[in-house]
Amino acid sequence: MSLSVVPEEPPVSAWLTALDFDWDEITRGYRRQAIANDALVFSQGWELDSVYVVQSGRLRLTADSVDGRKHHLMFIGPSGLAGDCGLFLEGRRYLVSAEAATDAVVCAVPAASFMNALQQSPALMRQFAALSALRFRIMLQHHSLLGANSARRRVCHHLLGLMGSYGVAHPAGTLIEMAFTKQEMGDLCALSRVSVSQILTQLAQDGVVAEEGRLLVVRAADRLVELART
Across the beta sheet with 104-110, what order do the strands follow? Predict the structure, then answer.
């Protein structure tokens, strides 16, 4: 498949903030920690000593390329995990970096305890596998989108993912109930905040989307699908 081709299946939102997972069996007995916005939680390459279960807010996952550039991968919200990707690899190192994208609360579970809990509970292991598969799909999308796709196409693709995950019926179309920032969209699309603002403004002028406070209404879903594929 060419890197410029976006898969035909519905996109998965890179904002994982509506997850239906329960990690209480693993986090029980461990203290919650408040993380300030933009604070570093762990860095790529550090020894993997803890897995972080997000309780509130959201974390930003990034990865450094061989040329030193930072790639923004996804946002992890409540009931999501960060720091687990290298859990079963020899050497146990964090494969990505995580920092708070908002003020957040996390529960840090020692890596050994997290592994033991998964190995002793088939239900938790299935849950872990489901989340891992979801994040893998997002990574495949990310790899595909950052090929030869245009800036507008990247933004429209992520808007489709948000609409699919957080969209509700609205008199003018479909309301995306999750608030996201232009900076977050720019980070995922490798664009500046200004570029994202210009694209959203043009989409609004074309009648595809409309702002409603801090939220966005998709007024012409069919047109958005077309723009995400062309």
Answer: 32-35, 104-110, 50-56, 81-82
pLDDT for 9-50, tens place per residue?
678 999 999 899 999 999 999 999 999 999 999 999 999 999
The answer to whether 62 and 73 have CB atoms below 8 angstroms apart is: yes
Sign of the C-alpha dihedral computed for residues 115, 48, 145 and 17 taken in this order:
positive
Are 53 and 107 within 8 A, CB to CB?
Answer: yes
CATH fit for domain 15-145, picks 2.60.120.10, 2.40.10.10, 3.30.390.30, 3.40.1190.10: 2.60.120.10
Confidence of residue 8 (pLDDT cuts 50, 70, 90): low
Closest CA to 178 of 8, 13, 64, 29: 13
